[in-house]
Amino acid sequence: MLRNGYVNRRTGQRLRPSHALGYWWHAWRPRSRARLNAELGWLPSGRPSRHLLDIGGNSPKAIHAARSSGWQVTVVLLDHQRPPWLDMPDVEVRVGSIAEAGLPEGSFDVINVNGALERMHRPLEELQACSRLLRVGGMLRVSTPNLASLGHRHYQRHWAPLDPPRNLMLFTASSLERLLERAGFTASYARNVPLSARHSFRESEALGIRRWRSPNYWLRWAAVEIKALIADVCTLVRPDWGERLVATARPVSAAAAIPVAA
Fold first, then answer.
1. What residues contact 16, with CB distance under 8 A and at least 6 apart?
2. Do 205 and 214 form a contact (C-beta atoms < 8 A)?
3. Could you say which DSSP state residue 72 is in?
4. Which residue, among 158, 184, 166, has the nearest Cα to 121 in the 3D structure?
5. Any bridge partners for residue 72, and if so which?
6. How does residue 183 score in pLDDT terms, banded at 50, 70 and 90?
7. What's the longest Cα–Cα distance across the chain?
8. Residue spans of beta strands (DSSP E) within 56-158
9. Which residues contact 238 (CB under 8 A, 6 or more apart)?
10. Which of 69, 213, 238, 242 is deepest in the core (most CB within 10 A)?
């Protein structure tokens, strides 16, 4: 109920059940607010009848929230593996690179690149294409694994987000900001998603021991939960150690600004 109240206020949806206090409940809880905003793709609030471009098709909640709020949605898939949930009549789907998708320049208010940047063969060219596709005041949001995370330092080659051979290139906060600047974006910043270590740690642990079903299953499970909790606490002091990076940027030529939820 409180969650729906926050989502309704942020995106203009009418989810039920909901309560108006939900917005303020999450607004005063930074970690909870950040998790919800990450799910919603950091869609600007109170902006109906706008156009969202999602790269990769890995953001079902953000796409659903945009559609429910009256946004037009276009999805570009990097390969032909179309997710089943993407079979929506009012969502335009194209396959291939962003630069070759044939999309009109200056036609999108928000471009969401979630779990796709690390799989691009030419990320600089693709981000430059994103810069051309954004309208004046448009916003680019990128979410990608953090190579400087505690999970990578601990699990090394067994760190699940490495995901070879699908993932081709991973970034730290500084390298991601430099890439965005080279692609023609400014006022970019990278932050980690708080309390994001649990899923990554469990997958990485499973890769390291090859299987969870062993006589010490519950002991290993408890150890992973403790390690993930410690990692999350550490990211409160060192946000650059988080498992994922979320960067928000605008084209250098942008003269106006769309407000972004804090």
1. 4
2. no
3. E
4. 166
5. 51
6. very high
7. 61
8. 72-77, 91-95, 108-114, 134-145
9. none
10. 242
DSSP string, 184-201: TEEEEEEEEPTT-HHHHH
Here the tokens at position 161 are: 């987000």
* Structure tokens belonging to residue 222: 């408890």
Show the DSSP H helices in 17-104 as ranges.
Answer: 21-27, 30-39, 60-68
Per-residue pLDDT of 89-121, as tens digits, reads: 788 889 888 988 889 999 999 999 988 999 999
Token pair of 233, please? 């606490």
- Cβ atoms 18, 5 nearer than 8 A: yes
- How far apart CA 254 and CA 261 sit, in angstroms, is 19
Task: Please give the model's pTM, rounded to 2 decimal places.
Answer: 0.78
Q: Which two tokens stand for residue 82?
A: 């179309």
Note the pLDDT of residue 256. 39
Q: With a cut of 50, say whether residue 39 has pLDDT above it.
A: yes
Cα–Cα distances (Å) from 61 to 37, 51, 58, 106, 228, in that order, read: 10, 16, 9, 25, 25
- Architecture of the domain whose range is 40-251: 3-Layer(aba) Sandwich (3.40)
End-to-end, the C-alpha distance of the chain in Å comes to 21
Q: How far apart are CA 146 and CA 124, in angstroms?
A: 18
Which of 134, 156, 161, 160 lies closest to 253, judged by CA? 134
Structure tokens at 67: 């559609």
Name the residue ranges covered by the structural domains of the chain: 1-39, 40-251
